[in-house]
Write a structure and sequence with these properties.
six-stranded antiparallel sheet
Length: 370
């Protein structure tokens, strides 16, 4: 998503730890409400009194609130549409809409994009940019949501927090993400106020972007249920928003998806689980066959329908990690060491997360599948 120079500067302060905490909040007292410009721009309030602009895009209009959180659709703007029934082509998404990762969106099946802008009703120089993406499949949309939230990092250290709207949603210190069905809404708070601190921005973001996200999450069409593989993951000890989703290729293997990978923590112990939920037993057996070909030692007797220990390398430069993988009916699942714990141990770090033993992995698999 596109960000202004002031926004990027404020985010840089956040990364340096200035006025920001890991949860995206602020140290000290929050700013007064409503949050207005420090240069007197609040005297120009009432910009949203007329209800804001209308979304002239007939496809997205039913899902996009005109007014929320004291912000309204920019009366001086209009939606930019790409792809299906859009003014611009999908090829122009990469050159005029996204600053980066355009290929990722396309790989996950992006087929439509709408860009909209909200303005601060108080007259303060703040705005919220909305990117509303539609994908060809639910799998693609949810995969892009987890890509945005987990961002190939450790969910235990994420600064975003879950919010209750849509199918899944997250709120950060200057943005928000909402997934439901084939849609992903990405919202970014932008401020041109040179005196706004990162802490004030986080509070302003929660009140404005958070409110818009809640409205959109309740209006987007489609089921709010997670895709089957993600829904099949164990929920106990799952880190909030700790799911990565892959529509096709994952775990160093091809054509086994969709695969959901969950990140878990219990005390100082860390582990991962993956789930592959197939619609029939034959499909699950085929997915299991790939893990059995990479098995270390003989099959595990009396553990579900099939079970093996195998080494999994999730990324090309990542460590090879032992997993206990089992199949029960149409579900293939595995419990393995947390890659971040393995890396910490390999680097000789003390006080880091610990791995779990093989017998504990077997117990966790059996408890999960029963």
């Amino acid at each position: 998503m596109q960000m202004s120079v002031p926004t990027m500067a404020l985010l840089s302060l956040c990364y340096l730890g200035v006025a920001c905490n890991p949860g995206g909040g602020s140290h000290g007292s929050p700013p007064p409400a409503p949050i207005a410009s420090t240069d007197g721009a609040s005297s120009r309030g009432g910009l949203c009194d007329s209800g804001g602009a209308e979304d002239l895009d007939a496809i997205s209009a039913p899902f996009v609130p005109r007014v929320a959180g004291g912000f309204c659709l920019d009366p001086q703007g209009e939606p930019k549409t790409y792809g299906d029934h859009g003014k611009f082509s999908m090829d122009e998404v990469c050159t005029t809409a996204f600053d980066g990762e355009c290929d990722v969106y396309k790989r996950f099946g992006l087929d439509r994009l709408v860009l909209l802008r909200y303005i601060d009703g108080t007259g303060a120089p703040n705005s919220v940019e909305l990117d509303l993406s539609r994908f060809a499949t639910v799998d693609g949309a949810y995969a892009m949501f987890t890509k945005r939230v987990v961002a190939d990092g450790d969910p235990a250290r994420a600064t975003v927090k879950p919010i209750a709207t849509g199918g899944a949603a997250a709120l950060g210190s200057s943005n928000a993400y909402v997934w439901r069905g084939v849609y992903l809404a990405e919202l970014t708070f932008v401020s041109e106020d040179p005196k706004m601190t990162p802490g004030w921005m986080a509070a302003a973001n929660a009140r404005s972007t958070g409110a818009i996200a809640h409205e959109i999450g309740g209006k987007l069409p489609g089921s709010a249920s997670l895709p089957p593989s993600a829904a099949a993951l164990p929920t106990a000890s799952l880190i909030p928003l700790g799911i990565s989703y892959y529509p096709k290729d994952a775990l160093g293997m091809t054509a086994i998806g969709p695969v959901a990978v969950g990140y878990y923590r219990e005390g100082d112990k860390r582990w991962r689980a993956f789930a592959i939920a197939r619609s029939d037993v034959d499909g699950a057996k085929e997915a299991m066959r790939g893990f059995k070909l990479k098995a270390v030692g003989s099959a595990l007797k009396s553990v579900e329908d099939d079970a093996v220990v195998t080494m999994i390398q999730e990324s090309g430069d990542g460590p090879r990690v032992p997993f206990v993988v089992a199949r029960k009916g149409t579900l293939v699942g595995g419990i393995g060491d947390e890659e971040f714990a393995v890396k910490s141990a390999g680097a000789g770090e003390s006080g880091g997360p610990t791995k779990i033993a093989k017998d504990e992995k077997i117990l966790k698999v059996e408890a999960w599948m029963k």
